[in-house]
Amino acid sequence: MNKDIQTYNDSQSENDRAICDFLSEIISENLPEAENKIWHAHPVWFLDGNPTVGYSKQKKGIRLMFWSGADFEEAGLNVKGTKFKDASVFYNTVNEINTEDLKRWLDKSKAIRWDYKNNVKRKGVLERLKQ
Predict the structure, then answer these.
(1) One digit per residue, pLDDT tens: the chain, 131 residues?
(2) pTM of the prediction?
(3) What is the domain partition of the chain in residue ranges?
(4) At the N or C end, where does the chain have fewer CB atoms within 10 A?
């Protein structure tokens, strides 16, 4: 695991650390080609320079966010972004994480992607990447 991500996970409460460690493990196993690092103060995995999935500590719990998740058509990703194509789910215990759902969402994150990398250059207009 990226040492900065491990440091992030280790800085969480015991319960939240368990969630973060579990998410990090599953994400890394299912997106081995992804670059991962701390970005905007939380762990994020990138495919071809585009943010794909990440998690962060928020008041509601640990938020797992897929940057292009709104197009996954998954009921479990029920927190939709208002400005971009993101979708999220919150976890408060490891037991809430459905590994099959998570792996399916990670598979979709490879195929359904929007180009966030060039978002500023295009003045906020997102373009869908090839599938």
Answers:
(1) 899 999 999 999 999 999 999 999 999 999 999 999 999 999 999 999 999 999 999 999 999 999 999 999 999 999 998 778 999 999 999 999 999 999 999 999 999 987 777 766 766 667 777 65
(2) 0.91
(3) 3-111
(4) C
Q: Are strands 61-66 and 87-91 parallel, antiparallel or unpaired?
A: antiparallel
* Topology at the third CATH level for domain 3-111: Aspartate Aminotransferase, domain 1 (3.90.1150)
Place of tokens 């998690």: 55
| Residues 73, 106, 16, 87, CA torsion sign | negative
- The answer to whether the beta carbons of residues 91 and 62 sit under 8 Å apart is yes
Q: Is the dihedral of CA 13, 18, 109, 59 positive or negative?
A: negative
Are the beta carbons of 52 and 31 closer than 8 angstroms? yes
Question: What is the token pair recorded at 85?
Answer: 């194509």
The sheet carrying 79-80 orders its strands as 35-39, 42-47, 50-58, 61-66, 87-91, 79-80
